[in-house]
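Supplementary Text 2. Reproducibility record for the structural model of the 557-residue chain.

All settings were left at their defaults, and a single model was retained for analysis rather than an ensemble. We include the record here because the model underlies the residue-level annotations in Supplementary Table 4.
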Amino acid sequence: MMEHRSKAYTREEFNKVLREFHKQSSRHVLIVEADISHVNKCAIFHYADLLRKAGNELTAVMKKKLDQLTRTKKYCSILDDYNKYKKNDNKKMKSLKGKELKALQEDNDITFDFCRKTMIEINKRYGLHSAHALARAEDIWKGVEKCLYSNGKTLRFKKRFDLPSIRAKQINRGMVAKYNDNDIYFSFDSYTKNKTISKKKTSKIDIHLTKNIDRFQSDELNAILDYLKDPEYHDHIAVRHFDETVECISTYRPCYAALVCKTIRGKLRVYVHITVEGKAVPKYDSKGNPRHKKGTGIVGVDIGTQHYAYVSDKKDGIDTLGALDDNFKKQQQKEKRLKRQMDRKRRANNPQNYDDDGTIKKGRKRWHNSKRYKKTLAKYKEQCRKNAINRKYANNHKVNLLRELGDVIITEPKNWSKLQKKVKKTKKNDQGKYQRKKRSGKSLLKCNPGYFQEQLKKVFPVYIEVSKQYRASQYDHTADDYIKKKLSQRKYELYDGTMVQRDWYSAFLLYNYDFQTQDIDKPKCCNEFENHHIRLKSIIEDIKKRGIKINDSGIRI
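Retained model, structure tokens:
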């Protein structure tokens, strides 16, 4: 096989193309629970806690330097100038101010090189594997970059039971993958090398994967094992195909693995996250049929905080986000009850920390939590975990249903982080316009529209976000004009007197997207409107008949 390869490529050419293939190929994560003893689980949890402590020490160092830099007048003035030139699109001055900002950061030791060296010095006291420590340093540096260049405010510390993942970005370091007798397992150093932390010598744990896996996990592992049987053969096919077509095929090469520690229902669990090269294998049901069908065509989707509307060639609809069925509502009510119980217990045990009006006093306080409070807290955390999983699965199911309708999705850009910001009171200016308004934080938590939109990006081959000038919520194709409407106006009449639902009509206008002009296709709107409007009437009738409550839709049951 190597002889055949050498005829087509030299060793240097082959490695060059292979490196480029690895850079451009997609990746996904396979999650499988580890089959290890309770003693080994405790050792891994202890190791993760040491990694957390080392990361917190590095976070404290970088946070101090970052705070010192951002408080200086020189840095603030240069940053203001940089943002000003960025808005004006002055590339020359923007580049100049960017170099000045970078020079200030280097003078204050806010660089990745300093972060890495500091972590090496900290790790001498903990004796962790260098690959795990440097991976943790990279995560902290990403937080620093977010504070410097994005919307990050400050660096956060890891709490006691908030354990970081143990990972190394090489398959042969830290978590070494081993292939033996058509089986894959991972070798991991269980104890630290520093005698001051642990008196036990460094030993290795062989982490095998649990056999209680579903069909999808089994197919993924079989694909990985197939690659490990003859990796050179699969690399050769991938390189040849990439060199000829510039397309990346799925090799299912295990890139690296990570250990994630979780406590579920009071039991310690360790999960192995294997980062695999390529796309995930298709899912099949028990009969061998594809679980999710893949359609073709255009799908216009308008995503709100609690529901979404879609229009396609095959089907139109309005549906809620998240798992808002009767069973899930009961689970949410249970979560609320547990939270109220915790609040009552905390107030009863700590009356000195509250004012007469019931609000918490300002300043640093000491809290005394009873055993009943701790038990209720454990129940509350478990209930929150269940509700989060239900929301995730429900949104994934809705994304797969949309994928069956088409392969091109068109939606509006959303900034969910702004909607998360809360204010105590609604404020208006002298002209009567809103300056600050209460936000829908609870709706975003229950329905999770941000996750829904991110999954649409992953699932659909073609994902398009229209520009802000598109204004799908204001356009009227019967008048060929943009007409502003109040946010509370969920149903309204078009210029010709036709009644439409606001979100559905926005999805309809997104569906009629002109790819050439990147604007609304008016002739297509006129031709397609009547058929889709008939669908809208049947949708509303079906919702009323089944008694489905869709918040903020304007549809009364």
